[in-house]
Amino acid sequence: MARADKITQTQKVIETFSDFLTNFDKSPMTDDLGRVTNESSIKTRVKNLILTNLGERPFNSSIGSNVVKSLFEPYTSFTADDIKEAIKHTLKYNEPAIEVLNVDVIGDANQNSVRVNIVFYIINNPTAISIDVILKRVR
User: Which domains does the chain have, with CATH numbers?
Assistant: First the structure.
């Protein structure tokens, strides 16, 4: 039988950011909407901001980026720079919880897609986080 003073205490993880799952699945334990927290929540928000077109959200037309319009242009270094700057601008003004460190844009002519790698850190957390987003043209 273990004594109470011999058991090590584990620190509770503080949930700073929280969002619903994007597919609105239920949590199997509580039968409520499932949710993601902290790093996963921020990654989901970043990806949603990039994939949302400007003017697509009702009543808030300033949220989103114009990355999709660049996908229909021939891929050049200028197109890559346009995508990179659009992503940086979108994240700077629409996601105040992060600080973007680097954005890499790599085009793939064979797949008609662009791979974007974003490296950022969450404010008050010095650990760098990386996310990859594949952008494809949809007709």
Answer: 15-21+32-136 (3.10.450.40)
- Over the stretch 86-133, which tens digit does the pLDDT of each residue have? 999 999 998 888 899 999 999 887 777 899 999 999 887 888 989 999
> Are residues 60 and 92 in contact, defined by beta-carbon separation less than 8 angstroms?
no
**Tokens 């010095």, residue located:** 126
H or E stretch covering 50? helix 38-51
Nearest residue to 95 (alpha-carbon basis) of 37, 30, 50: 50
Residue 6 pLDDT grade (very low, low, confident, very high; cuts 50, 70, 90) = low
Within 8 A by CB and 6+ apart from 126, the residues are none
Give CA–CA dist 109/22, Å, rounded. 30
List CB contacts of 136: < 8 A, sequence separation 6 or more. Answer: 71, 111, 112, 113, 114
- Using a pLDDT cut of 70, give the percent of the chain over it: 74
Handedness of CA 49, 115, 135, 33 (dihedral sign): negative
> pTM of this prediction?
0.76
